[in-house]
Design a protein that fits this description.
Distance between the termini: 28 Å
Helix content: 55-70%
Amino acid sequence: MTAAADDSENSISSPLTAARLRLSKVAQFISAPEDSAQVSARGQLLLRQAHRILMQWLERRSGMISPKPAHEFTVSEQDYLTACLLLLKTLIFAARADGRIDEFEHSSLYAVYRRLCAQMDAAGLVDELLTADPEVQSIADDVRYPEEALDIYLLSSLITAGDHFLEQNYLEGLAAALRIAPSQRRDLDAGAARLLEQSAPA
């Protein structure tokens, strides 16, 4: 984590204590993804995508329609919390689709939580997600915008890679719950496959 991010975290005892948070401030204490010896190349890819998507969700949920300087709009604490929880629910439920969380999935989930959402003090809620039934409809119910549905499916496809028939079944059910058309699903799976291929060691 960068020194700037550390300073931002120290200056805010908890993001939940602030009534409103500027997105520029949020961007400071959300640790930008960096290469790490503890995270595989595929894990780093997932972290970068999760970071990009979370920031887009926060911008959209702040009411932004067209690009403006970060200091001109704010993100509420509730929007930040709900966006983080939706991101974590997406990844955790997908990782559990085949009945177990493997080493890659575990390290990736930990990296996303620690670098993007740990400052929300949501550890207890994460524990609940690790034991709750992975109901795809509960994910769909939390989606606010059509773009979020596509982001959720892409992240789910990235973390599972669709290697197991149970993962394929999960992705099929997720696409149905999110009302993603078969042609869109094929495009998203193809996009995820390309990203994974690019991240594979030479």
